[in-house]
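Sample 1 of the test manifest.
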Amino acid sequence: MTVGLVLVSHSRELANGLAHVAGQMAPSVTIAPAGGLEDGSIGTSFELITDAIVKADTGDGAVLLYDLGSGFLTAETAVEFLESAQAERVVIVDAPFVLGAVSAAIAAHVGGDLRAVIAGALDARTANGPGGVRSLD
Amino acid sequence: MSCDAAGVVAAIRAVAATVAEHRVELTHLDRDIGDGDHGENMARGFTAVLTKLDAGAPDTPGAVLKLVATTLISTVGGAAGPLFGTAFLRAATTVGDAQTLDGEAIAKALTAARDGVVARGKAESGDKTMVDALTPAVTAAKGAADGGGSAAGVLQAAADAAAAGAEATFPMQARKGRASYLGERSIGHLDPGAMSSTYLLQALAATASQ
């Protein structure tokens, strides 16, 4: 079983780049970037997100991560247009975009089910430390 | 003008024209407190809508609204896509396959549209968003419909209330959307989504009264 990932971003480069970074530690996982509009400009595309969901969900579900709020709106709209059996196993998670993608990808790569991959994304909220400034001393 | 499929198509064409007319203004408003693409996004969406309508107009008001919805969802790349798209989709579902729309049907459609925007974006009144134009519009529309208003009367009441609501966003601090990142610096600017919602309703009202 492999849960897939969809990375929703306003930037094609950002989504593609993150897919590469996350993929390095999760070579067995389908990580489908959905960044930018279809013409490559900045924005989020319902069509590209829908295509990415189709790629990422091979029956075991998919976790969607997004960079900014309007990306969430477009992603949620795309999920609502899925037929209900698929919509039930496609989940948008509020998590840091980069850390969440890496953490979720690893969870999927080691065979985690949908819940485990969601948990992986959520665990990333503290992956870079508890928050605050890192100083030289 | 009758609110049948042809009338709704004419009204949507008027919306597309007004969006084109205000494209630069909406972009400037969005540049002040957002990412500067609202005018372009709306123009792109409604240009695509016109292309679809030119290829063959649907035969009920609901079908026209649904075509607008799905087109905006797929072509408007910012928050406006899912928000306006959901608004039109809920309106389409509410009017069903009615052949013509009267004042009451329009008030119900506007209410459903506003509810869809709130469900999608989770904004409340006072957050400095399109909801600040749409909620007064819905209140006015319901009042006009309850008073036996015609489609034109209901839309005019809605448009006037939306305009006042949009003006009222000027002193608000944004609590939703890209503008919310600006905090207090968002005060003293009109919300672009509230303005485009107003222009949209004004175009619908103007067509209905022809």
